[in-house]
Every structure is written in C-alpha cells, then in structure tokens.
C-alpha cells in the first residue's frame, strides 16, 4: 500500500475506528509504544545517561570480567536516537562519548585488531559529518580536535585518516 492510498483509507475511517487502530498498533508493536512514550514524555537526559552507561560498561565492565568492546552497542543507541528524533546536540554528544570512551580504554590496553580502529574511524567520520550537517561545529570543535590528537598520541594505526577528516572539518 502506498502512502497516498493509506492517506485516502485513513480519511474514510470514523474517528473511533482510527483510535482503535492506533491503540491496537500501540499494544502490538513495541516500536510504536516506544515512539509514543517518547513523544509524550521526552526524557532525553535519561536516555542520554542510559546510553552513556551502556557504552561505558562495554569498555569498563562493573563485574570484573573482560571488556566486550562491542561498538554495535553505541550504534544501536545512536540509531534509536535518530529514529525518535532526539535533540541533535544530545545525539552528537553520545557519538563523541563513544569514541572518547574507546580511547580511554586503548590508553590502558592496546588493541591489536585492525577492525576496531577501522570501526572507530568510520564512527569518527560519521560523527563529524553529523555535527557539520546539523550546524554544531563550533560547539564540538574542541572535542573533535581532542579525539584526533588522542589518536595521534596513542599512535593508532590509522591516525593519518583521522587527521584527514579533522583537516576537512576545519
């Protein structure tokens, strides 16, 4: 069904039936429920803190086991933020927090897998692009510079690529 057909169909429904269908969607699909819960009660700061805690525990777990280092955890939260329409400043903050946390971890422990560094590079590029596209470059310039300088200080194998992104950003 196309969007146009759906619009026509919804226009023919009486208000009560439309309300019933929305309630059915709300009860049946968790994504719909999450969306409406966010729209009517947008606790963005709570979502931000929850995301930061999860990211932190990926690198520095509470229960003495090894760090999982799953970069996908942060990506899931960022995608969720974009879907819900969370404030762009908060989304950018979480994006940078993910890279900064990974750098705190690599400052203590060297990671030998190239995929980690490639993933962090891709995430850095995505973050810089997102910040630039949303006109927040002035707000995050210092943090973006610190991330680049830290990759150079730690001699990440792809720090030259980070430098290229940073130079384009400036």
Describe the structure.
The chain is mainly α and 170 residues long. 79% of the residues lie in helices and 0% in strands. Helix 2 crosses helix 3, helix 5 packs antiparallel against helix 6 and helix 8 runs antiparallel to helix 9. The mean pLDDT is 91.
Detail the topology: elements first, then pairings.
Layout: H1 3-12, H2 15-28, H3 30-40, H4 44-59, H5 71-84, H6 88-108, H7 114-133, H8 137-153, H9 159-169
Structural class: mainly alpha
Proportion in β-strands = under 5%
Query: How would a textbook summarize the main sheet?
Result: none
Which geometry do the CA atoms define?
Answer: elongated
Spans of 5+ residues with little confidence (pLDDT < 50)?
none
Beta strands, count: 0
Overall pLDDT, averaged?
Answer: 91
Distance linking N and C termini: 46 Å
| Helical stretch tally | 9
* Share of helix, binned: over 70%
- What value does the Rg take, in angstroms? 20 Å
Q: Give, in order, the helices and strands.
A: HHHHHHHHH
Notable characteristics:
170 residues; mainly alpha; 9 helices; 79% helix; 0% strand
Short description:
This protein has 170 residues and is an all-alpha fold.
């Amino acid at each position: 069904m196309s969007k146009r057909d759906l619009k026509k169909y919804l226009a023919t429904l009486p208000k009560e039936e439309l309300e019933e269908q929305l309630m059915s969607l709300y009860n049946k699909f968790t994504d719909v429920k999450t969306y409406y819960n966010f729209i009517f009660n947008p606790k963005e700061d709570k979502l931000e803190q929850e995301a930061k805690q999860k990211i932190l525990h990926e690198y520095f777990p509470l229960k003495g086991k090894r760090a999982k280092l799953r970069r996908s955890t942060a990506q899931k939260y960022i995608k969720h933020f974009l879907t819900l329409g969370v404030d762009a400043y908060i989304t950018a903050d979480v994006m940078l927090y993910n890279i900064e946390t990974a750098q705190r971890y690599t400052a203590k422990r060297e990671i030998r897998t190239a995929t980690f560094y490639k993933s962090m590079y891709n995430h850095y590029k995505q973050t810089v692009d997102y910040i630039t596209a949303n006109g927040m470059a002035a707000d995050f310039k210092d943090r973006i510079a610190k991330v680049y300088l830290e990759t150079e200080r730690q001699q990440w194998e792809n720090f030259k690529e980070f430098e290229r992104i940073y130079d384009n950003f400036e």
